[in-house]
Amino acid sequence: MVAWFVVIGIAGLVNIAAAPVILIALNPLQGLGFCLHHRWLAFVALGAVVLSLTGAEALYADMGHFGKRPIRVTWFGIVFPSLVLNYFGQGALLLANPGALSNPFYRLFPQWAIFPMIVLATISTVIASQAVISGTYSMTKQAMQLSFLPRMSVVHTSEQEIGQIYVPGVN
């Protein structure tokens, strides 16, 4: 996952360097102007922003396994900066080349890097999906302990790690 975030952050940074005009987007008045002039489109764009944050539930579920400090260090040190650089890099790419609209993420990379990026994306997706599944089991167990859900069978899959569980009823 660290490799994924570092690579996408670097790809974004390269494209920001090629079209630094994207940094104007950091001015809040630009966002306000967009909202005032493109009301419906601004509403849809804000909805997309909300959807881009839906991974946060897995982050909070993982806090039960790792604690607040490691999650905060990872989020603010790697994940957030990489995502910001990548999103700004996509914006810079689109400003420089509007024809990249069909797939701005993969167009950030040179042609030779497309297949390695697909492999890295696939590996990262598998890891992230496992984190969501583990988080779902963890949150279910916590909900049962708080009497928000009826009791279900919880199978401990590791003798060393108490948080490694499987809940067949959720599966």
UniProtKB/TrEMBL annotation:
Transmembrane segments: 42-61, 73-93, 113-137
Top-rank lineage group of the source organism: Bacteria
Keyword Transmembrane tagged: yes
InterPro entries assigned: K+_transporter, K_trans_N
K+ potassium transporter integral membrane domain residues: 1-171
Molecular functions (GO terms): potassium ion transmembrane transporter activity
Alphabetical list of Pfam families matching this protein: K_trans (PF02705)
Keywords: Membrane, Transmembrane, Transmembrane helix
Listed GO CC annotations: membrane
Entry keyword DNA damage: no
Similarity comment: family membership: Belongs to the HAK/KUP transporter (TC 2.A.72) family.
Protein name per the record: Low affinity potassium transport system protein kup
Species this chain originates from: Paraburkholderia rhynchosiae
